[in-house]
Structures are given as structure tokens and as C-alpha cells.
Design brief:
7-stranded parallel beta sheet; Rossmann fold; 2 domains; alpha/beta; 12 helices; 335 residues; binds ligand G4F; two-stranded parallel sheet; 41% helix; UDP-galactose 4-epimerase, domain 1
Length: 335
């Protein structure tokens, strides 16, 4: 009998890659989605359109404990990947309350429902390098102290601690991945990498003549989402639940991303990019760089896609969907 996995946030970037990965390993894959998504699949299930019929979707809300219990009673998963969250850091400054409510309660409800209904189910929590915030050491490891700089970062620290407490207090197999930024052509348009590659494709297509960005000096450790979902799975295959940093170990500024993306199509970013102070955050995370030595030695995981490959794949995909001949179009099909 095939193993059953349940994913919250299955319609997101990570959820879609994880669903593909688990299906490829013979899993029966279930996903929790909001009722509106089931009612409006064309608009809301875009990233998993190719998986409809292969995954089983259940309407429930992370704000409703009984709805989660109902799904768990029906599915009885062996593995649960909790990816759903308000994940846009900038938005968490506009509405701290909803970010904290959704992210903290969502994780707590999910763990409490699992404890009541299927306590033997293995649980993955999507922690974040935003928990390190104003970093207290370079590079960041599992032992680095947290210093979050946004309601989003605080919500992830709370989720991380709730997960650890369910592991320690109730003996549940509950692990957290401390994932550094991970991108792909499926990234939401509001995040800086996709904003750059989509904006660039619009410029190439003659539909736009500028790209407004915020802080170009911020540095991130950017990997590929497809590589990172494998780390989530590996964590749940271990005898002992634990927490792992998942990162490439390289850091690059937003400015470097811009230069590489524009350079790959032969455009000079100085002609198009406008720095807009309105897009700066009230508190910024200036530098993130992770050390995933532990994941390498225990999980046997390491990032496969480098920065340049990631940038090219994203530019190529956005150029292709804008109908542009991309000089490196082959890159869009290589993975
Ligand atoms: O792409 P971002 O919005 O991602 P951020 O804030 O690093 O968070 C992402 O990674 C986290 C893992 O570390 C996740 F937990 C989180 O859910 C999310 O996936 O911004 C990256 C950097 C920031 O320093 C931001 O100030 O880019 C800078 N930036 C500069 N101009 C911009 C812009 N960010 C956005 N979104 N839009 C801009 O125009």
C-alpha cells in the first residue's frame, strides 16, 4: 500500500513541487485547500493544474480546528507537510495581526489536530531564515540565536517553538526546516526574484519601460524550491525528528540578481531599474547566509542548483511566457 501524505499550502510554489516529488515516489498525495480554491480552480489552482486528478484535495481552513480534524480523520496521513502561511514579509508590516493569527494559530491548530487524530503521523513545519533576522552570527546554523525583524519572522519563531514543544511534550515526530530563500519560475510575483524576472520579460516584450524596486543591497542565500522540497521529505524519513538549516551557503545581493538577469538578455539595468524608497521595509534583514552542514551529513542533502542557473531558469521561463525568444531558452527545459 502506498504511503499517504497531506500537504497544507499545496497550491503554493513549494506545495506544487513537493506534490510532484511525492507522486514520483509513489505516494498518495492529499492537499488542504480553501473552499474558494475548489470553487474557482482555474484562478486558484494554477500551480497544480497539471496534478488535478492525481492529488486529492480537501476543503478546510487553518482557522478552523474542527475542519482540520475532519480532514485528518478522513485521510489518516503518515506524513504531514505544513507549508501554508502568509509568507510575504512586506505584507506582515501592513497587517501584523492577520499574519500572526494565521501563521501561529494555523501551526498550532494543525499540530493539536494531529495529536488528537493521528499522533503517529510525522510532521514537517516550514520554518524560515527570517527567524534569524538581524543575524547574530555568520553563517547561520541550527544553533544561531533568533532575532526576527518582522511579524512574519516572529510568527515563524512561534511556529518553530510550538513544533519543538509538541515533539518534546507529546513525543510527536515533528521537525522544522529552517529554509533560506528558495525560488523558481513558480514563485509569486510579489517576491523580489520573480518581480525582477517577470518585470524584465515585460520590458523585453515592450509592455513596460521600468522596474521599481526597494533595497538593492539586501543579501540573500537563494536556492531552488525544487531542491528544497526534497530536504523536507528527507527530514520525515529520519528515525529522530529534528530541525535543519537548508541553504546553499552562498549569498548574493538583490543588485547582483538584477545585474545577472538583465545581463543574461543583454540589457543594461541602469536604464530601467528605479529605486523606490516606498518599497523599503521598516526593519530590514540585511544579510542571510546559511550553513547546512548538518543537513548534508545527516540527511545527505545538498543544493543542486546554483545562483546563475536559478536566475537563468527564471528569466527564461518568464521570457517564454511573454512570447520572447530568450537567448538561453534551452535553460527553461533543462530541469
Ligand atoms: O523576495 P523577498 O520579498 O523575500 P524575503 O523577505 O527574503 O522572504 C522570503 O524568504 C524567506 C526565507 O528567508 C521566507 F521565509 C519568506 O516567506 C519569503 O519567501 O525579499 C528579499 C529582499 C528583501 O531584503 C527586500 O527588502 O529583497 C528586497 N527587495 C528589494 N526590492 C524587495 C524589493 N523585495 C520585494 N518583495 N519587492 C521589491 O521590490
Amino acid at each position: 500500500m502506498s504511503a499517504r501524505a497531506l500537504i497544507t499550502g499545496i497550491t503554493g510554489q513549494d506545495g506544487s513541487y513537493l506534490a510532484e516529488f511525492l507522486l514520483s515516489r509513489g505516494y498518495e498525495v492529499h492537499g488542504i485547500v480553501r473552499r474558494v480554491a475548489v470553487e474557482d480552480p482555474t484562478r486558484r489552482l494554477g500551480r497544480i493544474a497539471h496534478l488535478i486528478g492525481k492529488v486529492q484535495l480537501h476543503a478546510a481552513s487553518l482557522e478552523s480546528f474542527p475542519s482540520l480534524c475532519n480532514v485528518l480523520r478522513k485521510v489518516r496521513p503518515q506524513e504531514c507537510y505544513h507549508l501554508a502561511a502568509q509568507s510575504f514579509v512586506s505584507y506582515s508590516f501592513d497587517d501584523e495581526f492577520s499574519t500572526l493569527n494565521t501563521n501561529v494559530n494555523g501551526t498550532h491548530y494543525m499540530l493539536a489536530a494531529l495529536k488528537d487524530e493521528v499522533p503517529e503521523c510525522r510532521f514537517y513545519f516550514a520554518g524560515s531564515s527570517e527567524m534569524f533576522g538581524k543575524v547574530e552570527e555568520i553563517p547561520q546554523t541550527e544553533r544561531t540565536r533568533f532575532h526576527p525583524r518582522s511579524a512574519y519572522g516572529i510568527s515563524k519563531v512561534a511556529g518553530f517553538e510550538i513544533t519543538r514543544n509538541y515533539r518534546e511534550a507529546y513525543g510527536m515526530h515533528a521537525s522544522s526546516g529552517i529554509l533560506f530563500n528558495h525560488e523558481s519560475p513558480r514563485r509569486g510575483f510579489e517576491f523580489v526574484t520573480r518581480k525582477i524576472t517577470y518585470g524584465l520579460a515585460q520590458i523585453m516584450a515592450g509592455k513596460s519601460d521600468q522596474l521599481r524596486l526597494g533595497n538593492l543591497q539586501a543579501k540573500r542565500d537563494w536556492g531552488h524550491a525544487r531542491d528544497y522540497v526534497e530536504a523536507m521529505w528527507l527530514m520525515l524519513q529520519q528515525d529522530q525528528a529534528d530541525d535543519y538549516v537548508i541553504a546553499t551557503g552562498e549569498t548574493h545581493s538583490v543588485d547582483e540578481f538584477v545585474k545577472l538577469a538583465f545581463g543574461s538578455v543583454g540589457l543594461d539595468p541602469n536604464r530601467y531599474v528605479i529605486v523606490d524608497e516606498q518599497l523599503f521595509r521598516p526593519a530590514e534583514v540585511n544579510l542571510l547566509i546559511g550553513d547546512s552542514a548538518r543537513a548534508r551529513s545527516i540527511l545527505g542533502w545538498q543544493a543542486r542548483t546554483n545562483f546563475e542557473e536559478l536566475v537563468r531558469e527564471m528569466v527564461a521561463a518568464d521570457c517564454l511566457s511573454a512570447g520572447i525568444e530568450y537567448p538561453f531558452a534551452a535553460a527553461a527545459h533543462t530541469h
